[in-house]
């Protein structure tokens, strides 16, 4: 059977794409290599404990989450805003004074960095909250570490607070990730709540999948190679579509498609899960290793945040090891020693349930980050996933949305006006699921932006050449005006290339932004 669309990969990107196609009346089949849906967002049940595949959190401010996910049905358990930092001296709480005004003094006096560091942190949060996402994505891109230094933070504060916090979120203890992405995530953290669903992080994927027509997803179907718009499974079975969408992790997409989708690099992560009758008294808070000792940089008593993560009378402790150390041999032993050093004999009684090691936790996303990479590769081949946008739950879903739009446009064929009549468009693609005017405009805009992104350097070069020629022809009489016009044009192109319709802005139908 030939499908309208074949989607390879049932992560959040593939599922979102399938959902949008289904809503538009486009039939699709999702081929998933593993034994379940969700990709990197999965949860397993083990002896009454819920173990996510790696330590993950849900930020409720993500616009895609607000638009697509029924947050109430997730029954989120929420983290306390802020974090507890473990430095040599003990445990210190850094709260968010906007949400916990009563903890302002405690936060300012905590011996983690200086008072000026904390005021700078408040200023930085204020700045990212004030600026629209599009503007944040246009900021000059540097590493997260460089961005923090430029903001004036002391090295001590960077090491004891920002490093373990963003190591956990960006899997990046080196703080190498793009400052654009850092600012975006910081905005989302400050704007909304952070939580864990009652049925585990995998409940997000389950909600998306539940809205697909029955039989849309085939698990245990590993695609070994592509032949045009046909996916060839490991056992030789061929599944063809009028459109083929590769929604795998970036490295797997590179393997299937080749040079047109370069390997985005990988950030690894590991998590050791422990069952405990006697957990540390942290409350529903993230504990950061402020001493840069590692390998564990974040500890959370998951069942304090979301009681359903452990059976009655027991607790679940997550010890997260983001970054290259996740791949070290004998990790679980080293983690056990570190936790015994932190929590004493109590940790010795914890039962090690499982260690997850995830070599490709997220794409590398070092600067310069293009947060809106091309999804349409031509001839009905598409690529989506977090490596096309930002490496996050939001980025994966947004890329799925963008791709579904591009697929619909391909299936609808060229606009009649461009080809001289409806009849001539009937060949090749599928004349079905016509797009409404608003979707078509959205799609045209998306294509124009992708073209600008792809040809940005040539366009800038042409703008400069045209300016020079005009300057020469007018004998320098209008030099200033020409220069200003050139700068304006260059800024416009730069703005489209770096911003586009920013993924952080709510898509149509999104709820109001949380204040
Ligand atoms: C440990 C960890 C912590 C994270 N923390 C956060 C966080 O706190 N907040 C946040 O927003 N994001 C976080 N992320 C990132 C987020 O989970 C991902 O960005 C997102 O889930 C990626 O979704 P995706 O659909 O692009 O890719 P994936 O989820 O990787 O889906 C790709 C799918 O393709 C399948 N596949 C691969 N090859 C084939 C093939 N040949 N044939 C068929 N199927 C194939 C895979 O099995 C997989 O199911 C974290 C990720 C990890 C691993």
CATH architecture of the domain at 2-41 and 202-265 and 367-402: 3-Layer(bba) Sandwich
Please compute the radius of gyration using only Cα atoms: 24 Å
Helix-strand makeup class: alpha+beta
Count of individual beta strands: 20
Q: Point out poorly predicted stretches.
A: 417-428, 497-515
User: How would you characterize the largest beta sheet?
Assistant: 8 strands, mixed
Distance between the termini: 49 Å
Task: Estimate percent helicity.
Answer: 25-40%
Give the overall shape: globular
| The CATH H-level homologous superfamily of the domain at 2-41 and 202-265 and 367-402 | FAD/NAD(P)-binding domain
Tell me the number of helical segments per DSSP (H or I, 4 or more residues long).
20
CATH fold call of the domain at 2-41 and 202-265 and 367-402: FAD/NAD(P)-binding domain
Oligomer status: single chain
Strand content: 15-25%
Helix-strand layout with pairing:
Elements: E1 2-8, H1 12-23, E2 28-31, E3 43-46, E4 49-52, E5 58-59, H2 63-68, H3 71-74, E6 77-78, E7 83-87, E8 90-94, H4 104-109, H5 115-130, H6 133-136, H7 144-150, H8 155-170, H9 179-191, E9 194-196, H10 203-210, E10 217-218, E11 223-227, E12 230-233, E13 238-246, H11 250-257, E14 266-276, E15 287-289, E16 298-301, H12 302-305, E17 315-322, H13 331-343, H14 345-348, E18 351-363, E19 376-378, E20 381-383, H15 393-412, H16 416-419, H17 422-425, H18 437-454, H19 456-473, H20 479-498
Parallel strand pairs: 1-2, 1-13, 2-10, 7-15, 13-20
Antiparallel strand pairs: 3-4, 5-9, 6-9, 7-8, 11-12, 12-13, 14-17, 14-18, 15-16, 16-17, 19-20
């Amino acid at each position: 059977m030939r499908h309208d669309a074949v989607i390879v990969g049932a992560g959040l990107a593939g599922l979102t794409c399938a959902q949008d196609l289904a809503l538009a009346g486009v039939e699709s089949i999702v081929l998933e290599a593993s034994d379940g849906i969700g990709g990197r967002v999965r949860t397993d049940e083990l002896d009454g404990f819920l173990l996510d595949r790696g330590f993950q959190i849900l930020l409720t401010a993500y616009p895609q989450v607000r638009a697509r996910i029924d947050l109430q049905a997730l029954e989120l358990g929420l983290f306390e805003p802020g974090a507890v930092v473990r430095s040599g001296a003990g445990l210190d709480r850094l709260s968010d004074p906007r949400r916990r005004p009563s903890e302002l003094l405690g936060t300012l006096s905590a011996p983690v960095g200086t008072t000026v560091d904390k005021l700078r942190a408040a200023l930085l949060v204020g700045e990212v909250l004030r600026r629209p996402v599009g503007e944040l994505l246009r900021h000059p891109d540097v590493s997260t570490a460089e961005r923090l230094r430029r903001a004036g933070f002391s090295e001590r504060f960077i090491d004891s607070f920002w490093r373990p916090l963003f190591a956990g979120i960006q899997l990046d203890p080196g703080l190498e990730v793009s400052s654009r992405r850092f600012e975006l995530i910081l905005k989302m953290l400050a704007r909304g709540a952070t939580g864990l669903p009652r049925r585990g992080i995998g409940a997000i994927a389950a909600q998306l999948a539940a809205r697909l027509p029955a039989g849309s997803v085939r698990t245990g179907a590993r695609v070994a190679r592509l032949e045009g718009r046909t996916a060839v499974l490991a056992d030789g079975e061929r599944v063809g579509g009028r459109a083929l969408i590769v929604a795998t992790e970036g490295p797997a997409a590179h393997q299937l498609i080749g040079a047109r989708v370069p390997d985005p690099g990988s950030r690894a992560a590991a998590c050791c899960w422990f069952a405990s009758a006697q957990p540390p008294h942290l409350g529903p808070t993230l504990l950061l290793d402020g001493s840069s000792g590692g390998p564990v940089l974040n500890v959370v008593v998951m069942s304090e945040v979301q009681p359903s993560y452990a059976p009655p009378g027991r607790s679940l402790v997550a010890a997260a090891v983001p970054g290259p150390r996740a791949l070290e041999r004998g990790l679980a032993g080293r983690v056990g020693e570190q936790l015994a050093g932190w929590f004493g004999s109590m940790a010795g009684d914890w039962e090690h349930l499982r260690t997850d090691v995830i070599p490709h936790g997220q794409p590398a996303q070092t600067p310069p980050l293009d947060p809106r990479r091309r999804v349409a590769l031509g001839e009905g081949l598409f690529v989506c996933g977090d490596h096309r946008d930002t490496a996050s739950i939001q980025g994966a879903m947004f890329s799925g949305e963008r791709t579904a739009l591009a697929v619909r446009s391909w299936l609808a064929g060229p606009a009649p006006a461009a080809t001289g009549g409806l009849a001539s468009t009937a060949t090749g693609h599928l004349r079905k699921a016509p797009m409404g005017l608003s979707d078509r405009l959205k799609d045209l805009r998306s294509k124009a932006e992708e073209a600008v992104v792809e040809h940005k350097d040539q366009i800038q070069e042409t703008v400069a050449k045209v300016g020079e020629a005009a300057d020469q022809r007018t004998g320098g009489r209008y030099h200033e005006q020409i220069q200003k016009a050139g700068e304006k044009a260059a800024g416009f192109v730069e703005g489209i290339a770096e911003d586009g319709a920013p993924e952080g802005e709510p898509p149509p139908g999104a709820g109001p932004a949380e204040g």
